[in-house]
């Protein structure tokens, strides 16, 4: 069974005054939480169509309508591991 996670990314304005970058050179939506971008999970849907419907609704709401192209739908298979190795913590 697949599910579809819907996220919205609010992109932070760069402190140096350069334009906010929403997509990379390949046209893929970017996200850098260390630079202040905020990712919000809007919901988990049973079909991609339902996630698309939710995008259309959310695009009319304050905040979301300011970045109407910054929604991301990612499909996942239920009960399938996504992170299969350990991780390291770096202390700065």
Topology of this structure?
Elements: E1 2-10, E2 38-45, H1 48-58, E3 71-77
Descriptive account of the structure:
This protein is of the alpha+beta class. It has one domain. The protein has one helix and three strands. It has one helix at 48-58, and strands at residues 2-10, 38-45, 71-77. A three-stranded antiparallel sheet has the order 2-1-3, covered by helices on one side. The longest helix has 11 residues, at 48-58. The model has no long low-confidence stretch (mean pLDDT 93).
Summarize the structure.
The chain is α+β, with helices and mostly antiparallel strands.
Question: Could you give the distance between the termini?
Answer: 41 Å
Which band does the percent of strand residues land in? 25-35%
The arrangement of helices and strands along the chain is EEHE
Q: Biggest sheet, strands in spatial order?
A: 2-1-3
The helix/strand class is: alpha+beta
Total domains, how many?
Answer: 1
Unreliable stretches? none
Notable features of this structure?
92 residues; 1 helix; 3 strands; 12% helix
């Amino acid at each position: 069974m697949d599910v579809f996670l819907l996220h919205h990314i609010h992109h932070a304005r760069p402190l140096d005054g350069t334009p906010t970058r929403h997509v990379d050179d390949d046209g893929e939506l970017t996200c850098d939480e260390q630079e202040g971008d905020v990712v919000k999970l809007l919901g988990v849907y049973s079909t991609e169509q339902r996630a698309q419907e939710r995008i259309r609704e959310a695009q009319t709401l304050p905040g979301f309508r300011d970045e109407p192209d910054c929604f991301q739908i990612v499909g996942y298979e239920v009960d399938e591991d996504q992170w299969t190795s350990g991780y390291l913590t770096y202390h700065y």
